[in-house]
Amino acid sequence: MAEEIAGLGDPIRTLELMWGRAPAPKRGPKSRLSVAELVAAAVAIADAEGIGAVSTRRVAEAVGISPMSFYTHIPDKAVLLDLMLDAVATGQAGEPTTPDFHPANWRANVTLVARSFRSFYLAHPWALQIGTHRPVLGPNTIRAYDNFLSVFDGLGLSEVEMDLCVILVANYVHGAVRDVVRAKMVKAQTGMSDDEWWYTIEPFLQTMDFSPYPVASRVGAVVGELYGLGDHDLAFDFGLERILDGLERLIEGKAATPPGAATVDGKPPSA
Amino acid sequence: MAEEIAGLGDPIRTLELMWGRAPAPKRGPKSRLSVAELVAAAVAIADAEGIGAVSTRRVAEAVGISPMSFYTHIPDKAVLLDLMLDAVATGQAGEPTTPDFHPANWRANVTLVARSFRSFYLAHPWALQIGTHRPVLGPNTIRAYDNFLSVFDGLGLSEVEMDLCVILVANYVHGAVRDVVRAKMVKAQTGMSDDEWWYTIEPFLQTMDFSPYPVASRVGAVVGELYGLGDHDLAFDFGLERILDGLERLIEGKAATPPGAATVDGKPPSA
DNA sequence: CCCAATCCTGTACACTGTAAAGAGTTATTT
DNA sequence: AAATAACTCTTTACAGTGTACAGGATTGGG
């Protein structure tokens, strides 16, 4: 398995493809396929078999062209990955652009987008494995960003603070969902669940001396007994709640402070 | 780049290698190399050229054995990746196991471990690209976990809560450092900085209609003008500060509540 | 008509992880 | 001492990857 770094191709060409702005060819045969068909086929493969199964040959075969014809439509695999990411980004299909936000309850709104972001990763786990080299500035991605930002709008935060809040929550969700996705993928590939794995290694762990790690062994014992390898849903909600508390202090500080006194990092001027 | 999923090999064998507990071979020629030498060579390659440059052949060549001899020492590449992760985990070498924690200032302590965790990823960016299938239960990794946990010890938190706090902060750091690392890697591979990339695509962006994304375009304009693609250090500190505020509410609540009253999962601690 | 642009294809190369089989070395058993 | 089992290391081989290159087929503009 390799690294899957996307976006090393010509940035302009990538953007043109993503926005459907590629200049229409004047001469030559009409192509039998659209870029969208290739991307859809690639996404289908990734959803079904993981990103590792997505190769240029596989995608070409899926749409019924020869391996090298792929490169007629998409410059290289990195661009394909960018296109895939934007294709599945929340905001298209049946999903409403702006779901039912509570006007006066920003905590509920943030929880909503965080959960929806989490659901996105659970639906397309391979998205976690793609390391985009540059931000994917496609229409769907930007719509998702817009949607995410809007839950922090009108709360007295500066634009920079709004951006930082989105980054904070997005980073947290990304990190939190990684473990769940990993466990699922490994289970699918090996047939061994986290629990089975744990029981397999447990006898070995018994033979070892954990006294150099006092806190870890104490906590690990309690946590392991209660949840095995950990309850991912519980961990997600716990972390999100802490982040919401942290944001609340920032936002309440803003409400109590006249606009203009705002500082970039959002520290409430503790009088 | 591909997925680099680690840990699909025999779990016990992996643990034995990681803890140096492999039963010493009784017959046969002495091997000229130790597993540690192979792992060190792999880490050196990854540090210098990225995880993509780490192949079993490259590692074998680096230590002066034939390609297939690699498999005499390490079952497969997935195990190598696990060994690499534990080899670089914080806690070994000259680093003190427990740096100078302030006894009464947990915020400073959390900030310290968070920054140190961040430094780790910046020193070994390839660690971000490895998706471990199972937790890496090596000595260095556990020591790092122990160290991380200890900053939440003695604050009135339950064991489960301590674990969840570590997960929260670790997830956040992981997510936050991703962008910095990505930018660095792309710059190294393409010679194009984020700023140069931005200037390249800017003319294209000018031709587009962003009115469907009102909040994003407003925020993007301000943020882009101030920081280009974003100030990663600023974003890191901002997010960490919010998280610390959130943790503070939890911890202060604990201090005001007699132990045994309530825990996050509702289960009372053994009291 | 001619030619340039474009789509599609087959061949080829260097690279990957690793299966399989064997050669050489060593310690234990007979 | 001889046989054997265990071990290290090697060569060969295979199926897969991304994609460079060269050419054939088709289309529209001059």
From TrEMBL, chains A, B:
Pfam family, one: TetR_N
Keyword set, alphabetical order: DNA-binding, Transcription, Transcription regulation
GO molecular function annotations of the record: DNA-binding transcription factor activity; transcription cis-regulatory region binding
Domain of life: Bacteria
InterPro entries reported in the protein's UniProt record: Homeodomain-like_sf (IPR009057), HTH-type_TetR-like_transc_reg (IPR050109), HTH_TetR (IPR001647), Repressor_TetR_C (IPR004111), Tet_transcr_reg_TetR-rel_C_sf (IPR036271)
One BP annotation, GO: negative regulation of DNA-templated transcription
DNA-binding region positions on the chain: 55-74
Name of the protein: TetR family transcriptional regulator
Organism (species): Devosia insulae DS-56
